Amino acid sequence: MGFHPTIHPAARNADVGCVLARTASLIDVVAALILFTALGAALVLVVAGANWLAGVPLFPLAPLFSGLRDDPAAYYWLFATLFSTIVPTAAHVIVAAFSLLILPFSATQRLPLNRWVTGTDATAAILGPLSLGFAATLAVMLPVLLLYGLYVLAVLVWPQLAQGYLSIFTTIAQMVGEVPLAATQP
After folding, report:
1. Are 43 and 173 within 8 A, CB to CB?
2. pLDDT at 99
3. Residue 181 gets which letter from DSSP?
């Protein structure tokens, strides 16, 4: 979705293409984050459904959520499973960054780059590949640095972040009757 406005013929040489690329990239990242959270919600609903179909709790969610609240380190495997989806989310961010760097400026601002890439003189031979390589490096490194910054932020505010994220899934489990309200009180 993020690449489409940058390669569409109508937007390729127009200033509007830049706006389209940025908007599509932002939508792409937001959609990835929504899907990231939806995966956890689906997991809770599938376990609740399996418990309901079996007639007995195959995997009771109330003790799980209590354990996650009281001793999160014991459930590192669960966090690793849920957060393994960060890899495709990071891929979405990198694709979005590429689409932003493919069409970052208006057509007149891209003229020097155009001359460098298509030129035959010595300056063009150096600046063309150098500028394209720099843009590609930025497209990969900026999302990686952003994700590292989010990791550092998460370490600083991990308890609040983990409790907030856990509350989303606890609320879903309460809505389907898997976790009684009393089980979630500290």
Report:
1. no
2. 67
3. G
Both structure tokens of 99: 């689409």
CA 186/CA 183 separation, integer angstroms:
8
Burial (CB < 10 A; 0-12, 13-18, 19+), residue 56, is exposed
In terms of residues, how long is the chain?
186
Helices (H), 55-157: 61-70, 76-83, 86-102, 111-118, 122-156
Question: What is the distance between the alpha carbons of residues 173 and 167, in angstroms, rounded to a whole number?
Answer: 10
Confidence of residue 7 (pLDDT cuts 50, 70, 90): very low
> How far apart are the C-alpha atoms of 136 and 139, rounded to whole Å?
5
177 conformational bin, left if phi > 0, alpha if psi -120 to 50, beta if neither: left
Local confidence band at 26 (pLDDT 50, 70, 90 cut-offs): confident
Task: Tell me the average pLDDT across 74-88.
Answer: 76
Q: Residue written as tokens 């959609």?
A: 31
**Spatial CA neighbour of 169 closest among 48, 8, 13:** 48
Residues 81-94: what's their mean pLDDT? 73
Residue 135 token pair: 């843009």
CB atoms within 10 A of CB 29: 18
The alpha helices in 157-181, defined as continuous H runs, are 158-175
